# Entry
Amino acid sequence: MTQGKLVIFSAPSGAGKTTIVHYLLSRIPELEFSISATTRECRGNEVNNKDYYFITKEEFLHKVAKHEFVEFEEVYSGTFYGTLKSEIQRIWNEGKHVVFDIDVEGGLRLKKKYGENALAIFVQPPSLEVLIERLSGRGTDSPEKLKERIQKAGKELSYADKFDIILPNNDLKTACEEAEQLVRHFLFGEA
Ligand code: 5GP
# Structure
């Protein structure tokens, strides 16, 4: 069985991890994005089977019962997200390394499972206030969903020191460049 490495980006929603992960995918061809399964509704700009595998709650729970997930979570009440074992294997079979955009608890679970083979990076926003501003400005969530994301973010910020690396995101361009250096060092031993 082929085995590559895993690069995990975790952070509260709105900290900029998705942008950083997209930047890395455009810069490092040896990396491939782990497409999670979710029961959340597809947003206008998202593509099924590319951003997520959008599935029903029924399908999701069926996969849970069949032990198809390496980790999964009810990230927000009633909304499930999970990483399929088959997804990691698919990417490794292509001879690539896997990059994850995943919530804090899921990220720590993967790190615990894969140990030295995984690099777990926590993307730290400048402050909770800035995070709230970014989340509110995004305009993709209903007021109730937004409130839930903000509540969860406060808790998630306290998990930072459990990660291999804390990557501050005060300036997105700098954070992207730093992320690339860190990942190249981990994957290829580049200085
Ligand atoms: P969003 O709804 O904004 O796309 O994602 C909500 C949160 O779920 C984000 O923090 C995202 O990183 C996280 N997430 C996405 N996929 C997974 C997954 O497979 N497992 C877990 N535990 N969290 C995930």
